[in-house]
Write a structure and sequence with these properties.
Blueprint (H helix, E strand, L loop, with lengths): L9 H6 L4 H18 L6 H12 L4 E2 H8 L3 H13 L3 E5 L7 E5 L1 H15 L18
Antiparallel strand pairs: 1-3, 2-3
Helix pairs in contact: 2-6, 3-5, 4-5
Length: 139
């Protein structure tokens, strides 16, 4: 297997087969850069929830997110509490069925994921990074 290089566009990296040790080294680099960045520290559950809301088309409900992640609704609620405090997502009550809560994207959440995407791409806060698909923005 050949090594990944920071300058390679994400589309090329996606097509490269890597050994598990290479994937772990890549993930270590991403996490180290993220920790050093001073950005908010999210748990794996919070990050998975945030990515799910931004990568998958909605509408997103607490019930649906819990089913997708195979966790309980209280687990989703606790993760959402932190994400809402950070203003990465917001809750909106369904006007047709007041029992449902929609989880909505925010600009601040999209900005956070754009920055995190730069860590994954290996460019950190470098404004000269190659163009990447934009994170889906708040509606």
């Amino acid at each position: 297997m050949r090594a990944l290089h920071r300058s390679e566009p994400a589309a090329i990296i996606d097509s490269i087969e890597v050994e598990p040790a290479d994937e772990l080294s890549l993930w270590l680099r991403v996490l180290t850069s993220y920790v050093r960045s001073g950005m908010p520290d999210l748990t794996n559950r919070q990050m998975a929830l945030l990515l799910l809301v931004y990568v998958k088309d909605g509408p997103h409900t607490v019930r649906g997110l819990a089913e997708t992640l195979d966790v309980s609704k209280p687990v989703i609620t606790r993760a959402l509490n932190k994400l809402c405090v950070l203003q990465f997502v917001r809750r909106q009550r369904d006007q047709d069925d007041r029992r449902n809560i929609f989880v909505m994207r925010t600009e601040k959440g999209a900005d956070f994921l754009d920055a995190f995407g730069r860590f994954v791409a290996g460019t950190g806060d470098n404004d000269q990074s190659p163009p990447r698909p934009a994170v889906k923005r708040a509606r």
